[in-house]
UniProtKB/TrEMBL annotation:
Species this chain originates from: Chryseobacterium takakiae
InterPro entries: Bact_response_regulator, CheY-like_superfamily, Sig_transdc_resp-reg_receiver
One BP annotation, GO: phosphorelay signal transduction system
Pfam families attached to this UniProt entry: Response_reg
Protein name: Response regulator receiver domain-containing protein
Amino acid sequence: MNSKKIMVCDDDQGILDVLQMLLESEGFTVFTEINSTNLIKQIHIDKPDLILLDLWMPLLSGDQVLKAIRSTQEIKDLPVIVLSASVDGDDIAADAGASDFVAKPFDLDDIVSKINGLLVLK
C-alpha cells in the first residue's frame, strides 16, 4: 500500500470521480480540484506527490497552471501529468513543462503506470 498523494484537477466532475475511484483502488490518497484557479493554493495545503492536470479548463488553462507551478520555487519540481483530448496537447504540455502526457479518452492502466513511473523517481 503506498500512501502517495495525487491531486487531480479537471473541470469535469465525472472525470474527477472516475480518477479518484481508480487511484484510491490503487492505494493512492487522492485530492480533487475542479477549479483550476484554486489549484496552486491547494497544492500548498495538501502537498501532493504528483498532479494529474487537464489541459482545457475554463478561467485558467492547464498549461497556464503548469507554468505557474514550474515558476513557483517550492513546487517547481512536482511531477505533473497532463491529460488532454487535444491533438496537439502533448506539444502544449511539453512546452509548459509537463512530466508526462496522457491523451483522452485515457487508458486507466496507462495512467497508473505513468504515475508509478514518475513516483519511483522521487
